[in-house]
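[recover] target loaded
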């Protein structure tokens, strides 16, 4: 039995996205040592008042995107090898493409534009088995679903 989600496109047996459906590329290179990605944007909005006690309208202002990516240390080191001085913060702006490729064949793509790495740090403690590195990003904008 097929279920229908918002846009009228049927999903076979209710299959929705899962982690295995996501393919992330940084500057066109598929990343396999990724364990997480988080991104979004927020827009300033303000209610405007006139006569009476209730708002008569609203205004919209700046859109502020944010993102972070979590990679295995080995993946970060591979990226660092592409730099002249080993600092990932000095890499020229790049795009991150996040593709959702479910079994249904309906592809969805988000594009994080003009990304830069903000930080590069390691924290280890006794008993650790492998290291995940969380990297904050700054970016110009997100093209949602393009």
């Amino acid at each position: 039995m097929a279920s229908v989600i918002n846009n009228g496109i049927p999903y076979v047996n209710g299959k929705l996205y899962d982690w295995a459906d996501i393919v992330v590329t940084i500057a066109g290179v598929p990343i396999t040592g990724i364990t997480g990605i988080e991104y979004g944007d927020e827009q300033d909005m303000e209610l405007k008042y006139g006569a009476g006690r209730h708002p008569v309208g609203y205004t919209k202002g700046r859109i502020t995107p944010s993102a972070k990516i979590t990679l295995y240390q080995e993946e970060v080191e591979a990226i660092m090898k592409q730099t002249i001085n080993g600092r990932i913060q000095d890499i020229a702006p790049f795009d991150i493409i996040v593709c959702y490729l479910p079994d249904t064949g309906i592809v969805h793509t988000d594009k994080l534009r003009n990304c830069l790495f903000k930080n590069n740090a390691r924290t280890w403690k006794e008993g650790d088995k492998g290291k995940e590195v969380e990297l904050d990003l700054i970016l110009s904008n997100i093209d949602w679903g393009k």
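[recover] notes: The helical segments are 73-80.
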